[in-house]
From TrEMBL:
This is ABC transporter ATP-binding protein. PANTHER family: METAL TRANSPORT SYSTEM ATP-BINDING PROTEIN TM_0124-RELATED, MOLYBDATE IMPORT ATP-BINDING PROTEIN MOLC. Pfam families: ABC_tran. Residues 2-225 form the ABC transporter domain. Belongs to the ABC transporter superfamily. SMART domains: AAA. InterPro entries: AAA+_ATPase, ABC_transporter-like_ATP-bd, ABC_transporter-like_CS, Metal_Ion_Import_ABC, P-loop_NTPase. GO terms for biological process: zinc ion transport. It comes from the Bacteria. The keyword Metal-binding does not apply.
Length: 251
């Protein structure tokens, strides 16, 4: 469970988050949406204790895993080495990973369709492949709360599906509490129980997905007209194109 009350956070001497309140129940999924630079990463870093709030309260109940937006490592670790780092609290400070640790990582690699990357050097993987390995690392920690910064940003449609479905499944079957940021409202439509909309000059708006996620709020959030459509019988959002495609005009 996560409880945030009256949260105020500054970066570089400037207030970035002001008056943020929300609750995510155990097993809930919160999607955080907002324009570039509005403070989504700042909020996540505050949840995991990296940034200190100027005011307010922020309680995260349970072992927490974090998946950053971008990740590079200094040494030639393999994808397996990187994912095994998620097992640190199970392995202990001077211990070596055991059979079970490998088995846990391999289970998530298989679920995410990246079993073939196990022996590859992490830094030679594509951005999307690295993102999948980092998510496997966090899941391998067997955390109770998982916080992910744009987990699908570098992923193709199929891999977005895999990650979004996996988060949904883990929250349903293992009561995993999830917070993720995204620039794709569709990810919120698909799995979020709760949504937090972060505005540049107004307090964030949070609540149950059905109450908060709608075309009017999304249009105000991004400053472009966003419409609701139904896509194969499901709620979907899309922004209106600014210009017609060149091929649409009469020649
Ligand atoms: N190290 C820093 N020092 C000063 N200001 C910072 C620092 N890091 C971020 N900021 C500022 O804090 C604000 C919030 O940044 P943050 O990274 O939280 O935004 P975001 O919503 O995650 O953006 P994006 O969608 O582009 O990832 C921005 O205005 C940014 O310029």
């Amino acid at each position: 469970m996560i409880e945030v009350e009256g949260l105020v956070v500054s970066r570089g001497g400037r207030r970035v988050i002001e008056g943020c309140d929300f609750v995510v129940p155990k097993g809930g999924i919160l999607a955080v949406l907002g324009a570039n630079g509005v403070g989504k990463t700042t909020l996540l870093m505050t949840l995991i204790g990296v940034h200190r709030p100027d005011a307010g309260r922020c309680t995260v109940g349970g072992r927490t895993g974090y998946v950053p937006q971008l990740y590079d490592v200094a040494f030639s670790y393999t994808a397996m080495d990187i994912a095994l780092m998620g097992r640190a609290r199970h392995v202990g400070l001077f211990g070596a990973p055991r059979q079970r640790d490998y088995a846990v990582v391999r289970r998530f690699f298989a679920l995410m369709g990246i079993a073939d990357l196990e022996e590859r050097t992490f830094n030679t993987l594509s951005g999307g492949q690295r993102q999948l390995v980092m998510i496997a690392q966090a899941l391998a920690s067997e955390c109770e709360v998982l916080i992910l910064d744009e987990p699908c940003a570098a992923l193709d449609y199929k891999n977005q599906r895999i990650v979004i479905d996996l988060l949904d499944r883990l929250s349903r079957e293992h009561d995993l509490t999830v917070v993720f940021t995204t620039h794709a409202p569709q990810h919120a439509v698909e799995i979020a129980s709760d949504v937090l909309l972060m505005y540049p000059s107004a307090p964030p708006l949070g609540g149950a997905r059905a109450d908060v996620l709608n075309a009017a709020n999304l249009s105000a959030l991004y400053g472009v007209p966003i419409g609701r459509a139904d896509f194969v019988g499901r709620e979907a959002y899309t922004y209106a194109p600014l210009y017609g495609h060149a091929g649409d005009t009469a020649r």
